[in-house]
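Q: Sequence in, structure out?
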Amino acid sequence: MEISGKRAFELLNKIGFIREAGSEEELKAANILKEEIESFGLSAELESFKVGDAVIEEAELEVLEPYNKKYTVTAYKCSKNADNLVADFVYAGNGMPVDLKNVKGKIVMVNGYMRVPMYKKLIEAGAIGFVTMDGTMRDTEEDSDLYTRKLRSALQAFGLIPGVNIRIKDAFEMVSKKASKVRLTVKNTLVDITSHNVIAKIEGTQYPDEIISFGAHFDSVPFSTGVYDNGAGSVVIMELLRYFKENPPKRTVVFCWYGAEEIGLEGSKYHVKANPEEIEKTIFMVNVDVGGAVLGLDRCGVTADEDLKNYTDAFMKINGFSVDVYKSIYSSDSIPFADKGIPAVNFERDCTPGGGYIHCRHDVIDYLWPDALENTATHILKYSEALVNSYVFPFERKIPDDIREKVDNYLYRKELKEVGVEI
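A: Exactly. Output:
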């Protein structure tokens, strides 16, 4: 069986609709993937799991002084509710010590979106609310969307304050017009949503107790068809599964399409935690996240030691594959595996700047190409097949100290430990 970019592209069209975590559409996409697997003679299962979330009922930000104006905002899910909270307003940029010196009792706007280090500093400085910003100065309301973000569990561990997200153009106006007092309202109700992973497995013919895991997430952000991120990865690993069905592997292969990646790697975190026996036998992980861009660069991030990085780079060159190989972590579903000491590689095809879009309504199939999907799937297959069928698996099941440090930093392990949260 040959890899087919045309077939992958057809499947990508089938799942090319908004697939927000925990939605009916995400479940619909999961069932499409499951049916695709079963169409070529393999069984597949849906692995369901709960994720804490919230329903937004109201979000409002109004400048009271020195001018009066209401701005369109989205509330941070799971942040603290606030009913007409009036306070002084300050812009604190990137949260430098000087900027946070006198923010106690104030509502604070910061650059970008909220991460643990910034949130921790705001809580410690006594801020009572926050505002983050999204987009570009060239955005129009008619041609862009305002991201509804979530106060993830790692941030909640430090305490709760209300927060909203605003367009960067409106943030610009607030700062340039010297907004000094605001009214903030956030109303949201906590809920549990149900997401799903799609799982398929082929037993190894010679080394069934050695598992190589393949992964790609299939959910999208709320307003995006998510074909580039990451319908493309989902259809690429489907091509690999087809191949191993027709060419039985020496080692066991487990294929996982993860749900709820976009809200914190929830699907892969759950799978790793819920399947300890499988994870104990897993010696390697192959993840695919973003692909199919007409204009772009194929890359491979090696979340392991230098030996695997050098091998991967040499393999691509020897076989004539144009792939930029680097050593680091990648913000995707390989992280929970690396956290368990499992070496991983992360394949991606990064679009050239301006040649595609991510996390927005412009992530559409018009900018993707069957040939690009086929090229990426081909080099991933050749690389993976060599390791899946190797006489002796050539790499240890370990993560070097420098990568371990990056994983711990990504998971904010040190900061969370300080507030008594072990992960």
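The two ends are 42 Å apart (CA to CA).
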